[in-house]
């Protein structure tokens, strides 16, 4: 595989700049950076590589390189601090704790449960998965890792944060960050709006710029912490409780009881049940009516019925942008700099070292690319004893030095430095993913070792993250036991579209988390194929027995593989409607020219798309698809409206 030398030089230059600027207390002027920071020179055909200055060329060229590097470093989570006490000769430095989390010494058992938790949550490829798992990533449930570093840094240092936020429009926000809350798998920043007493929650996937910490600081009081703890990602409460009333079929009543523990059910006859369900917000009540669809007949109150009818008249209707106005992000591994840090952190999370083939497998890249990156980074020149505290300092062991270019060399973290623990630090975003995965897994597989790992992480992070998980998964323990004991079980299962539950016999093999909910992979004896089941839709589990022989699972990526066939469709939506579509695995996200968000995915069942567009309502429109898909949800919306 051929690589562009400028790309490799840029990566090494940026890595060297990080280590030089984090090793200085006073900072370095641009002249000092130009004179002292070096990179590996081009090959002359021999094993010996010369060193050259990282920043060479005319003053204009040097300045352009430096400005580009500052942008790339900031996008990777590092903040370059400028000391402008001498305006004509400013000094630059990087706070080492800005992107690197505090060093945490995990035991071997904690390391193992972290690896399991990351697999359980499907965090792979772009996240912390590769640091703890020896296998290649099997899923890729990304959680906006690029914004975590500056947000966590601002929370820890009590610094005011600025970012561009996409709500009804894109506007700049200036806030005092207090806490991150993870609610049903979705991350929010809870902060006080600068200069006010208003506390707001900002979905991290709607932050459309890399957050920047300002020089302004704030004092975090107990009252501020209390107000932040009261925030929850729900609609504004109504002055009075909204009691939605109506009837449903007896077969659907158990589903209501499972989803809404506060519901009151009254049997009217053998086929019909009356229900009364309280809500504290009008929008919540309307969403219930829309989601239940034809399975309920709502009798009141009038404002809820009127709002639901108005909602249904606007399903999949609105301006459709031309396809030429929609741009999708290219697929890739992310920045060169992030990939280099990922490889280095893999080595330092594994004291026994990792071979080139293992690094390539974990990072899902070519072995020659590993050789190119690690060959350069392992010989970065650092000032003084700085090599003793940075993860770039690794040792290469080669079995066949005469054929180094093809040898499956071993890279080891150095053992002859004083601060090896500091050298094995993760990025803040990696540590956040680990913490989230442990919390999710611990709810299903309660283990003391998971608890101890969580305590270590939150002790280092001052416990600034709050987790709220799904509370309706009552069958988790039974499914977990069936997996552990290799059993088949009989379940009563509600699909999203059906009126009644279906009794099935399944052989569950694996459970994972996605968007705050537990999913189980199982062989379904009713359908005679592999199926995914959401645990909160299982009414009961009974009759465990030996599973016997079943077919091998053809989809190792079952959590995030929506469908490999089906008809492609593109939906364009306002930013606040993204959450309806983010649950679709392997969707390809982009933006329309007018600022709306776009997602492309494949549809196997048109009923799924109909229900999805009805739930999304106004602000979401099919931009490309078959003639039937362009009208998705229209007929269903009319049927629900007539049913009200």
Keywords:
644 residues, alpha+beta, six-stranded mixed sheet, five-stranded antiparallel sheet, 22 helices, 28 strands, 34% helix, globular
Helices, by number, come to 22
Q: Which spans of ≥5 residues are poorly predicted at pLDDT below 50?
A: 1-6, 385-389, 417-422
* DSSP strand tally: 28
How much of the sequence lies in strands comes to: 25-35%
Nearest-angstrom radius of gyration?
27 Å
| Head-to-tail CA distance between termini | 63 Å
Shape: globular
Biggest pleated-sheet summary: 6 strands, mixed
Oligomer: single chain
Question: Helix proportion of residues, in percent?
Answer: 25-40%
Overall residue-averaged pLDDT value: 84
Sheet/helix structural class: alpha+beta
How does this model look, in words?
With 644 residues, the protein is α+β, with helices and mostly antiparallel strands. It has a domain at 1-94. 34% of the residues lie in helices and 26% in strands. It is built from 22 helices and 28 strands. Strands 6, 7, 8, 9, 10 and 19 form a 6-stranded mixed β-sheet that branches. A hairpin with a 2-residue loop joins strand 21 (502-514) and strand 22. The radius of gyration is 27 Å and the shape is globular. The N and C termini lie far apart (63 Å). Residues 1-6, 385-389 and 417-422 have low confidence and may be disordered.
């Amino acid at each position: 595989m051929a690589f562009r030398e400028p790309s490799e030089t840029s990566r090494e230059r940026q890595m060297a700049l990080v280590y030089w600027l984090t090793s200085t207390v006073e900072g370095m002027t641009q002249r000092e950076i130009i004179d002292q920071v070096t990179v590996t020179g081009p090959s002359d055909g021999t094993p010996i590589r010369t060193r050259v200055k990282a920043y060479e060329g005319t003053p204009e060229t040097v300045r352009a390189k430096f400005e580009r590097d500052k942008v790339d470093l900031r996008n990777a989570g590092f903040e370059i601090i400028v000391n402008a006490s001498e305006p004509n000769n400013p000094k630059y430095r990087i706070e080492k704790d800005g992107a690197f989390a505090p060093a945490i010494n995990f035991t071997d058992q904690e390391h193992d449960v972290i690896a399991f938790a990351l697999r359980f949550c499907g965090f792979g490829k772009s996240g912390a998965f590769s640091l703890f798992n020896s296998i290649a990533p099997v899923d890729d449930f990304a959680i906006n890792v690029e914004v975590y570093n500056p947000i966590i840094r601002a929370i820890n240092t009590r610094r005011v944060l600025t970012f561009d936020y996409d709500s009804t429009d894109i506007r700049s926000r200036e806030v005092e960050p207090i806490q991150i809350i993870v609610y049903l798998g979705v991350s929010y920043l809870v902060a006080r709006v600068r200069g006010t007493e208003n506390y707001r929650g900002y979905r991290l996937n709607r932050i459309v710029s890399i957050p920047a910490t300002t020089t302004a600081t704030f004092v975090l009081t107990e009252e501020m912490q209390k107000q932040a703890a009261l925030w929850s990602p729900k609609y504004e409460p109504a002055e009075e409780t909204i009691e939605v009333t109506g009837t449903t079929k007896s077969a659907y009543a158990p589903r209501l009881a499972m989803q809404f523990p506060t519901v009151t059910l009254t049997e009217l006859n053998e086929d019909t049940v009356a229900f009364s369900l309280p809500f504290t917000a009008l929008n919540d009540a309307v969403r219930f009516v829309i989601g239940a669809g034809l399975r309920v007949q709502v009798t009141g109150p009038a404002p809820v019925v009127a709002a639901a009818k108005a909602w249904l008249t606007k399903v999949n209707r609105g301006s459709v942008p031309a396809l030429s106005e929609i741009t999708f992000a290219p697929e890739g591994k992310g920045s060169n700099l992030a990939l280099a840090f990922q490889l280095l952190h893999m080595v330092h999370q594994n004291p026994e070292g990792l071979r080139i083939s293992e690094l390539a497998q974990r990072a899902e890249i070519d072995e020659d690319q590993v050789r190119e990156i690690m060959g350069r980074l392992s010989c970065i020149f650092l000032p003084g004893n700085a090599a003793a505290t940075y993860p770039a300092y690794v040792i290469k062991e080669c079995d066949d030095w005469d054929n180094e270019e093809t040898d499956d060399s071993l890279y080891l973290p150095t053992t002859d430095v004083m601060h090896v623990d500091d050298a094995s630090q993760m990025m803040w975003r990696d540590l956040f993913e680990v913490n989230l995965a442990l919390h999710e897994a611990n709810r299903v597989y309660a283990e003391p070792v998971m608890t101890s790992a969580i305590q270590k992480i939150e002790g280092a992070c001052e416990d600034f993250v709050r987790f709220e998980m799904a509370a309706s998964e009552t069958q988790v323990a039974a499914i977990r036991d069936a997996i552990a004991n290799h059993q088949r079980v009989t379940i009563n299962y509600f699909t999203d579209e059906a009126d009644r539950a279906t009794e099935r016999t399944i052989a569950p093999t694996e459970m994972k988390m996605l968007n705050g909910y537990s999913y189980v992979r199982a062989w379904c004896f009713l359908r005679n194929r592999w199926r995914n089941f959401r645990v909160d839709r299982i009414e009961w589990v009974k009759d465990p027995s030996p599973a016997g022989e079943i077919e091998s699972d053809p989809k190792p990526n079952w959590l995030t593989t929506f469908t490999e066939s089906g008809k492609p469709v593109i939906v364009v939506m306002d930013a606040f409607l993204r959450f309806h579509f983010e649950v679709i695995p392997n969707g390809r996200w982009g933006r329309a020219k007018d600022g709306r968000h776009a997602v492309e995915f494949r549809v196997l069942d048109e009923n799924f798309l109909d229900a999805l567009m009805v739930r999304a309502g106004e602000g979401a429109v099919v931009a490309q698809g078959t003639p039937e898909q362009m009208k998705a949800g229209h007929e269903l919306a009319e049927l629900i409206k007539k049913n009200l």
